[in-house]
Records
---
Amino acid sequence: MTIKHLKSVLFVLTFVTACIYEGNSQVDYDKYPKASNSYFIKDVYAYTNGEMSTSMTNIVIKDGFISEIGPRVKQPKGAIPLELDSMYVYPAFIDVLSHPLKSEEKKDRDDVKFPGLPSDLIAGITPDQSMTVKLKSEKVSLGKMRENGFGISQLAFDHGMLPGSTSIVLLADATDARGLTETTNQVLQFKGAGGVYPNTIIGVMAKFRDLYRNAEAYDSNQKAYSQSATGVSLPTSSQAIAALVPLTQGKETLYIRTKKKLNNYRAIQLKEELGFNAVLIDPVDITGIEQDLKDSRLPIVFSTTMAKEVKSPERVKDSTYSQLDLETLELKEKAFDAYMSRVNQVNRAIDLEIPVAFASLEKSGSDIKESMALMVENGMLESDAINALTMSPAKILGIEKLAGSIAKQKVASLMITDKPYFEEKSNIRTMIVGTEVHEYEAKAKDKKEGSSDIDPVGKWSFTLETPGGDDTGKIIIEPAGDQYTVTIYQDSDSDDQKVINDVDLEGSNMEFGFSVTEGSMSVNVEVTLEFLGENELEGNVKYGDFGTFPLMGDKTSAPE
Amino acid sequence: MKMSTSRIILTTIFALSILAISAQQISKPTYGPVLLKGATIYTVTEGIIEGDVLIEENLITQVGQDLDGGDALVIDCNGKRIYPGFMDSGCKIGLAEIGAVSLTQDFNELGSFTPHMKALTAVNPSSVHIPITRVNGVLTAFTIPAGGLFPGQGALINMHGYTPESMSAGFEGHLLNWPSSGRRHRWDRRTDEEINKDKEKALKKLNEFWQSVFAYANISSPEGYKPQLETLKDVAKGKAKLLVEVNKKGDILDAITWVNENEVDAIFTGVAEGWRVADSLAKYEIPVITGPILDNPSRDSDRYDTPYTNAGKMAKAGVLVAIRTNESDNVRNLPFNAAFAANYGMGVETAVEAITINPAKIFGVDDQLGSIEEGKQANLFVCDGDPFEMKTRITHVFINGYNIPIESRQTLLYDEFLERDPGLNIKD
Amino acid sequence: MIQTTQHKTWIGLMATLLIILTMTHNIQGQEMGDVLIKNGTVITIEDGVKENTDVLIRDGKIEQIGEGISIRDIKTIDADGKYVMPGIIDAHSHLGLDAVNEATNPVTAEVWVGDALNPYDVGLYRALAGGVTTAHAMHGSANAIGGQCETIKHRWGEMNPERWRMKDAPRTIKFALGENPMRVHGERNNVAPRTRMGMEQEFRRSFAAAKEYKKEKLIASSNKNSQRPEYSLRLETLADILDGNVIIHCHSYRADEILMLMKVLEDYGVEDICFQHVNEGFKVAPELAEFGATASVFSDWWAYKFEVYYSTAYNATILTRNGVITSINSDSRELIRHLYHEAAKTQRYGDLTDNEALRLITINPAIQLGIEDRVGSIKIGKDGDIAIFENHPLSVYATPVYTIVDGVVRFNINEDPNDVRVDIDPKEKVPAFYESHIHDHELEGCMQGTELSTHSH
């Protein structure tokens, strides 16, 4: 155990002790003590060494730490048993960067006389703003992240190019139970100040260099002053510059939010030039630049919503292929390939041995499971996925001795599920974060989101508004397993029909397409329907390049 | 023969002396019968003829060998070529003087429905742009308003005259900016949904307006002052042409349907993606004014030479194609636009037609302009080689019979500053 | 391809992507190429025109020029009946930049558009398809002293902007005079400068401050006890200009403002300047020649604002005839595709010889960028940057057929696909249609990002 590690642990323990012992002059009887700070978890499968154990084991948690693990471990006296038999215990996920504050105040620019000389605050340069201080003064709710399986997160501000220093915390409810490490970091965003300096990417880059070099100068002046104050005046600097000194000393890491592909190169450029520690955050798409990123040796932290940000296959169904011209077909295939490349990019980074992890950013991680499942479905190993959410981020944050796996002496930061995490119907049932235990109900089974009340099955008549006047027709929707078969008649009185199989109902929406051939011309028709309750629907019909027209419909009869 | 040679020399000396007197003022055109002798005549409609052209008053009166011009000024055109004046079928000349000085910009009235705006009203005969344009052989231009759904009426004008009326080349035409489903430009940040909504809204506006125009046109004696409707009466009845600016593939197809349904006699302009639907344009016999050719492709995925090849592809499919610059400052580049089209698939002959007889046909003035034929207006120029080539010099320009000096403010500045006098200011 | 993609499985797709990836890496590894161009009409620019001549490029450099060069196992281009000229150089471009103007301050010497390079801009490929191999990617003209520029090579396909930089090209910086900076600061922001008088003082106060800064630094470094002075990237850059380490490229139009800046530079001992646009350069051509200033002009643009109303397309000819080293630039994603045609305009407007006209887009811009030892002519030891044309490049019927950068064929009219995009947005099923490009140059030229971008180069 290194000295640094010990110090961190002590830091945690101080918090824990403060919880237990409130020996002071006055007593608050609105509060009461916990029955115990020790817990006993019996007969569970535990995820250790990159896999789920095949036999069951027991775990003891004491004062926020894992104190014992093993099949023969007995329930200690004074420990509360948790009812988790046969469940699956994972190290809780570690979120590399999140923005927990709702909306940060917009600074008023009206009083800026010279757009080239705004205050640091207006320019978005506030590295002296501290999340650790903010957490003490403001109630910040972290429950949402925890609900999605995260036990630890690095919290950051979101405003401006240098929004402030971060704080790495346990996602506990009690503010005094969140302490994990004293380590803080800085964040850089390629965000202009909006009409004032620095307004553009070139301004932000130049301003950062300027601030960094000034921080170095300030640091060296301070050192000179402390060595020999005679004949040397007291060094001065702005608060912002002073706050960047730890970064220049290598004591902090710069988490650079890139978003655009080329911003990754800009981040690397600054790092190479100035020589600080850095991590790339939220590169939306690394297609084609994987090797350069590997060569930079920077860890990459993807957004938890990354894989979901593009709607999946805008792919032309096989049946309509012949209707498209070759050029359109190739373009659509390219778009699809680009989509797949995004889905697979984390896995490619792992294959290149780039350290990867995830960040919930503004989204609290609510898409994490869906995102990870999509990646696993497309070839990522489950063990790589779990690693990217646990040990890998622990290493990136420098807390791997404290967290990231289930082991003795580590902080109790555990996620307990009723089925293996990647099984479709698994639920997070318990989150243990330090001294806190949070329990969750299993979600209702089999119900797709919001689909409960909608039954599209039946006969519908519709009116389609086109520039050439209104058209009427009918739609028959029949069930077919989990899906539906849709028959659409373009004219109420004619037999000219299109049958579309395997249509999904998503929430109250349905989307399907078909093609219509008129002489030598063929048009792809894309239909979007929304069911408004039992007997009404509305939607849009897109006729190739001719336009999109609104459609309204009523149910004429229930299923036959 | 001797006589005429000396007259040429005299004229030249006279022109030079004017230059020496004033470097800011372009010399006055001359008028009177002229015999252009011994040229290679690119008639456009009747092939290439070796021979003479006789100009009397404002007309070409004879084309043939060994013509007798009587008292006419004889210009020896040996080794030279004669072409009908080039015609830019879409630009802003005379309506826009200085780009960033908005009060010199007369082509964009406020409002969606301004079909009653007439470009001819605002054409400035003294615009500095006019001489700069004509010395490159561009002698006629269709100058047009912009903005709005129905921005107004363009006017076909000659590049010489002291009043708009005297410049008029006999055609005015209404414009319609077809509601676009594309992005306006690279910095158009609207979402696809917003673009679609805007387009639908504009289409609705268009159709509602057109219903009013149609209803008005069919009332036997309409009451009140309704210039917006009145001016489009003939278009609604199919008696006058409508120029429809439309560029994107889907929009072109929509516009074809619209003009067919409304029985509008249409000319399509712009037509950047015409090559994608060239067969449809040909099938419905819709003439096209396209350009600029020296332009960027419309989509990032398009081949780099798409704008160069578009005109040629449409022409090959059987579309009647004219080429425009769509310029305000450099209408003089029309021949070079045509040259690029020629080089990228259209061929030189068709490209010349696209800036002479084709626009004349499209505008219905081919009985007067667009070729070297007896009885047509004397709008022509003489040059010492292929007029598309950069090294070629244009030596004579005739507009409506006027012999125009090969001068513009830009040539005058050249004459004054090539060897500036005094040169370097030496102190003390 | 289509049949296979139709039935593409996830695994199959992964394999395809892997192939794409490996391909990219091969391209990245292959920055310097070998190629033999056979039997062309070689326009060397500095050493006449050589018929039926071969040019051998090895490891990215021109190794041999002569007849009957024969090498085994080398990529060979048959240039019989074709014209082989040095790659075209554009001394004024804003292509491939994510930001062009930091318009918030009249002086922003510290910013650098090299930070904003975007090698995925398809306009760069289209420039390449017009024979352009090198471009000066410039800061805009919103500021008296704008940002530093970047000289790039058009290495289309390279994903890393670092590999687009022309290593060892001298540093350059953008200055601007006249209407643009006056409008942005004086007219819009209501801060000086609002006049051409105020413009002069921006340069004088900046250079004075840089001189002072240099002095303070010198004192600090010579005195052990003194503190390091406050660091200023802006003043560092200005000091570099005073030290002659940065070539100035100044956006300018009117004769008076051109004379003003030469006077200021003379007072501060700065020599290296290229005036950009310089539409009224023809009026002060003798003064420019005497100062040793160079000029980079439009072929025929005029009238887009008042300060260019008294222009003439004969500008390049007048400047050349007066001994000013002159180039023709594009400042436009449209013109950059046919600079050979723009150069040819000097034969319509003036009477430059073929070689004089071609110098305007080759060796002269190279001199203005300080890279004439590397590019701008076909010469042994220079970079293997070549444009090959069907028909003479100054003919209006010229067609670029190959463009070679460092010996690597980056454009081949017969083999390149129609869609050359390298960064594809999966959200865009079919790439967007842009209605207007005629205004591209207004929106993206010198005043891009200043909200005053209409007609304002």
Note: Chain A touches chain C through 71 residues (CB under 8 Å).
---
Amino acid sequence: MTGPALVLVLAVAVLFAAGFNLLMERSLIRIVIGFMLLGHGANVLLLLAGGAAGSPPLLGGKSERPMADPLPQAMVLTAIVITFGVTAFLLALAFRSRILLGEDEVRDDVEDRRVHTGQRRQEPWAGGDAEADPLEENTEQESAEPGRTQQKTTGQADTGPGDTGHGDGAKGGGA
Amino acid sequence: MNVLVPLPFVLLLLGAALTMISRRRATWLRVLAPLAVAASLAAACGLMAAVSRDGVIAVQMGGWAAPLGITLVADRLSALLLVVSIGVLLAIMLHAVAEGAGGTSETEPGVFYPAYLTLTAGVALIFLAGDLFNLFVAFEIMLASSYVLMTLTPTAERIQAGMTYTVVSLMSSILFLASIGLTYAAAGTVNLADLSEHVANLPEGTRTALGLLFLVVFGIKGAIAPMHLWLPDSYPAALTRVTAVFAALLTKAAIYALIRVETLIFPREQVSWIMLVLAAATMLVGTLGALTHDDVHRVFSFILVGHIGYMLFGLGLFSIAGLTGAILYLVHHIVVQAALFLVSDLMQGRTGETSLRRLGGLAQMSSFIAVLFFIPAMSVSGMPPSSGFIAKLALFQAGLGEDRVIAFVVTGVAVLASLLTLMAMSRIWTLGFWRPRPEEAGEPPAAASYTRASTRLMGTVTAVLVVGGLLIAVFAGPLSSWSSMAAADLLDPTAYRNAVTQGGAP
């Protein structure tokens, strides 16, 4: 009895670790995959909560042995439906992001970066110039990081040929 | 009478379905959607009257007995919050109607109203849910519609903010699901009333672990200090009317769930200091953050984070007085935060600006907007005749009534945070309203963005909400006695438990 349960516990641990790790990536598609892994991990965990495996299912009839707890199974079904719907939404969002931003990477927040870099705010009553726009500075910093941009282009080149679906995406990104 | 319990939720879902069907007819949408919310508000008021007469009302959906079936429960706390939040949601809905939202245009298809109604239904279900898993489903209903609302009329900035928001919310939902699984494994039930009996038999360590897990889950959803980072980045990017809904209700629903769950599961003495420390941190981080930002929406978002700390403070005290303060603060803050965002929408409509660098001269342009901003701004900073003062006073008295050093310290921090809030609000007032319009801002846009009638309606709705905030102060007596009865029910769940085990089918 303990054997399969232990394997499942380990599976939950691995799924959660991998999922959280992927969530911290900047590429949206990895985030989506990470979320899917997390969802599976949580579902397996719920199933484990129903007790050890191997009991007969609750099917109306009578059984001498204690039957499997149906409640976690019902919960897992609901959770699977929710995760499925939300994953579809996330994929659509990632696609939109690719069309609108031309890349599927999460960027830093402009205002946060302004506060973080300690750029002195021009207090409006001090009559400072309004030219120091954090947005402009942001684009400069963006182009000053060639490593990330390069990585992105090689990624596209890898997936581009051979697969029409990806090819379309790359075109949309370039436009 | 029992049929009243699911009614607010069911009416809203029905409204969502109807608006979904008629989404190509703009006029129908603008009539149907407010009607559905108004009907649900009426049902919620009826429920509140029934609760004040009969005490806790529980309903077993589908006729399954208590720990097995889906239980919906209405007690004093949930009835009060249901009425207040559906009322505020109705006001924001009318504001959106006045703004001409949900046109059948290409950029904004008619999904606004169905999504909004589904979100409202989710909020109603959160307040009514009687078991943990149903609470999870209610949160998912609310959040799934909020993802849609967040990314409505997509721009690059909005999609990016929406992505952050969605991913963080989903992560907390997964943690929520995992915590439910662990709770079920430990206690063998997810029904709240049943849990309140079973957790007493659990080892101390298990209870602490479960309590902390739920603190993290609802801490992320409710933007408590170290877990608040997603909120100020994402909220300001949405449409202002959407941000008003989010700010008024989403975090407050999480705080409600936290209050509900923690009063049942937490071993109080051990971990209440963690909550108090987190509360102090949240207050300071939020209000200081509000001072560093220039965008009005970001300032308001940070104020929102800071004031979540007050509710956590009340919960962390775990006394009747503390919980009373927390409930009063919830009610006050739902109304006032919504009013602030609606006013900022009016400001934006008038000047086309949200940045304090380029705002100015609003007091001269429209004294009406100035008054509308001034009242909730003073209320949120806790100036005496306002609802914020009443709620803060209740919390401070509760904090000073405790015989613990940490409670004194956190009360001090809370006073400081009030002052910082006042500073942030005065900054908006001085820069946005008092000083002359800066030269680089250019000419204000000709007020052609809205018709005269719609501007007037928007102003009226905001004024009603502001007056509603004042009414909280006027009816502070009955409200605080209601809240203290609700708090007593929370700390002694016998009535709740009895109602659930004896509750009948609707």
Note: The two ends of chain A are 57 Å apart (CA to CA).
